[in-house]
């Protein structure tokens, strides 16, 4: 006779159920694994999961957006299913997610492997050994009693940074002995608490920089408002937040859904991305509709989509976008997870957020590789890189997986340490000025060497070099890999982290990776000589000096 237990049901009623099966005995590190169709790094990560499953039940897997999380976990499903057919015929596999797009994506990757779909409006085929489920439908009052009696010995949780939500945590109550794998690009929570109450360990991928340099993610140009811009000052002054800890949407709409600010969005699109295929991330429905209208009246084939867009209409618009009939989709919280369109050429950020996960999911839409593009453009009109760094910033994912109690500050949960210096002369923003210039923050070229003629024009400065091409200046490293493309009118030698540069007739100072430290607004900034540089604000102003800490000295 099986031991009886009393567990709390979804309806908060006491029901008598049979103690869950302890799970099949399997040594995963010795499982017959089929790595066909996997890239080397995908195969490596799959086997790391198997090694951990030998010791613990619950494992998290982190892989950047666009590097094949779904490919990896569906390969795992195939390996497990083959083993179960010979050794544990009663075992079932559950893949669970929270969005329709993710469910469809997983189902498509499974292809010829028989599986059922547990989703509202679809007939259930629970006898099939693999199920792909919506967490909402799976945990609904209608289905809960049926689902808890199923024998899911293996559970895959897509976008597992959501797994701390109560609906997901019930999976641990319902199937305490199952092997679970949570996959995510961003093991990060707004509260900065971790995931160790559910997962015993995490498998970490290589960095986004590695994937770009090895051709698995797209090269890109990251173009943003400056750190001391009026828009950035306004964002930094927001002190109203929603229940999730992010900025209150009503506050964002009141501040940024303005004609002048939307005009700056279109201005930057026209300058850097006109004619390209892309996605714009807006604050709310009204903001998205206003942006779409502005772009449309200027001849851009644009539309908007949000959560209220009927499913059929949404699908038609997406298909038109993928086919190139629509150039730009303005969306509200739709294309941040599970949307796969590799030939996207640009994304534009028009919604401030405090969520690192949301930021990386959004910029990740531009980083998928495609035969039809060589590079992508990220237009950051709300300065998110000032909070989170660029996509290539080194993230301390294990630190966030474990969790910590730090709030905002020099390290605000982005996983990088930053030295943010804002203009001490705070001013009342005047958006009528219309002078929120965009600056190139980061340029990537996949780690390829610059051509020999460019290297011959380089000025040797040790680790970082200034090179000239077609009369313009850029920066490369000691291996002649381009760090900053040759787009500047003039540059002085690298010194102590800084490079004076000239853009549009004005001088400023950048870091070695192209990040703008001092906005180009000075008549002249000279080279650093023994740690001292000349500065002249305007043509007829007196010359003064700064030191290598960018402090004015007499």
The name of the CATH topology of the largest domain is Rossmann fold
Report the end-to-end length measured between terminal Cα atoms. Answer: 89 Å
- Form type: globular
Q: Order of strands in the sheet with the most strands?
A: 5-6-4-7-8-3-9
- For the record, the CATH architecture of the largest domain stands as 3-Layer(aba) Sandwich
Q: What structural class results from the helix and strand content?
A: alpha/beta
Q: State the oligomer.
A: single chain
Rg from alpha-carbon coordinates: 26 Å
Question: Tally of extended strands?
Answer: 27
Largest sheet: 7 strands, parallel
Q: CATH class of the largest domain, please? A: Alpha Beta
Strand content: 15-25%
Tally of DSSP helical segments: 16
- The helix fraction, in percent, is 25-40%
User: Structurally, how many domains make up the residues?
Assistant: 3
Task: Report low-confidence residues grouped into runs of 5 or more.
Answer: 1-21, 406-435, 447-462
CATH superfamily of the largest domain: P-loop containing nucleotide triphosphate hydrolases
Average pLDDT for all residues: 83
How would you describe this structure to a colleague?
With 554 residues, the chain is of the alpha/beta class. The strands form six sheets. A seven-stranded parallel sheet has the order 5-6-4-7-8-3-9. The protein has a seven-stranded mixed sheet with strand order 12-13-11-14-15-10-16, with helices on both faces. It has a four-stranded antiparallel sheet with strand order 20-21-22-23, with no helix packed on it. Helices cover 26% and strands 24% of the residues. It contains 16 helices and 27 strands. The chain has three domains: 4-205, P-loop containing nucleotide triphosphate hydrolases (Rossmann fold, 3-Layer(aba) Sandwich); 211-441, P-loop containing nucleotide triphosphate hydrolases (Rossmann fold, 3-Layer(aba) Sandwich); 449-553, Lipocalin. The longest helix has 19 residues, at 69-87. The radius of gyration is 26 Å and the shape is globular. Mean pLDDT is 83; it is low at 1-21, 406-435 and 447-462.
């Amino acid at each position: 006779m099986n031991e009886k237990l009393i567990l709390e049901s979804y309806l908060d009623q006491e029901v008598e159920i049979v103690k869950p099966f302890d799970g099949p005995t399997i040594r995963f590190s010795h499982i017959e694994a089929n790595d066909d169709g996997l890239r080397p790094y995908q195969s490596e990560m799959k086997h790391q999961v198997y090694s951990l499953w030998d010791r613990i039940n619950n494992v998290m897997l982190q892989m950047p957006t666009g590097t094949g999380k779904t490919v990896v976990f569906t390969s795992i499903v195939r390996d497990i299913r083959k083993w179960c057919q010979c050794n544990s015929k009663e075992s079932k596999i559950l893949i669970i997610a929270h969005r329709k797009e993710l469910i469809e994506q997983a189902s498509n990757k499974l292809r010829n492997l028989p599986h059922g779909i547990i989703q509202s409006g679809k007939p259930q085929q629970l006898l099939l050994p693999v199920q792909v489920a919506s967490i909402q439908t799976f945990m609904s009052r209608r289905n809960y009693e049926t689902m808890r009696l199923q024998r899911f010995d293996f559970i895959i949780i897509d976008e597992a940074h959501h797994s701390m939500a109560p609906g997901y945590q019930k999976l641990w109550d319902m199937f305490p002995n199952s092997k679970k794998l949570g996959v995510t690009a961003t093991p990060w929570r707004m509260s900065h608490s971790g995931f160790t109450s559910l997962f015993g360990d995490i498998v970490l991928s290589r960095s986004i920089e590695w994937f770009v340099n090895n051709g698995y993610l797209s090269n890109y140009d990251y173009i943003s408002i400056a750190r001391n811009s009026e828009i950035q000052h306004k964002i930094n002054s927001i002190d109203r937040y929603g229940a999730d800890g992010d900025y209150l949407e009503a506050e964002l709409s009141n501040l940024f859904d303005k004609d002048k600010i939307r005009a700056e969005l279109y201005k930057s699109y026209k300058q850097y991305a006109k004619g390209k295929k892309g996605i714009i991330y807006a604050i709310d429905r009204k903001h998205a509709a206003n942006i779409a209208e502005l772009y449309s009246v200027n001849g851009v084939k644009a539309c908007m989509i949000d959560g209220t867009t009927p499913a059929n209409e949404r699908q038609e618009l997406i298909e038109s976008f993928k086919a190139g009939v629509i150039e730009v989709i303005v969306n509200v919280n739709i294309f941040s997870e599970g949307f796969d369109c590799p030939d996207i050429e640009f994304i534009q950020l028009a919604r401030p957020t405090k969520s690192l996960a949301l930021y990386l999911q959004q910029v990740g839409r531009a980083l998928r590789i495609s035969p039809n593009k060589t590079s992508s453009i990220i237009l950051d009109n709300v300065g998110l890189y000032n909070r989170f760094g660029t996509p290539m910033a080194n993230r301390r994912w294990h630190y966030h997986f474990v969790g910590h109690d730090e709030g905002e500050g020099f390290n605000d949960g982005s996983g990088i340490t930053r030295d943010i210096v804002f203009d001490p002369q705070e001013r009342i923003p005047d958006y009528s000025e219309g002078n929120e210039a965009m600056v190139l923050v980061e340029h990537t070229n996949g780690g390829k060497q610059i051509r020999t003629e460019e290297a011959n024009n380089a000025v040797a400065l040790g680790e970082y070099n200034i090179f000239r091409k077609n009369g313009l200046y850029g920066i490369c490293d000691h291996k002649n890999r381009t760090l900053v493309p040759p787009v500047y009118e003039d540059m002085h030698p690298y010194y102590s982290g800084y490079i004076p540069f000239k853009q549009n007739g004005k001088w400023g100072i950048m870091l070695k990776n192209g990040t703008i430290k001092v906005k180009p607004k000075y008549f002249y900034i000279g080279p650093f000589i023994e740690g001292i540089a000349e500065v002249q604000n305007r043509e007829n102003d007196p010359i003064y000096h700064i030191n290598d800490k960018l402090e004015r000295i007499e």
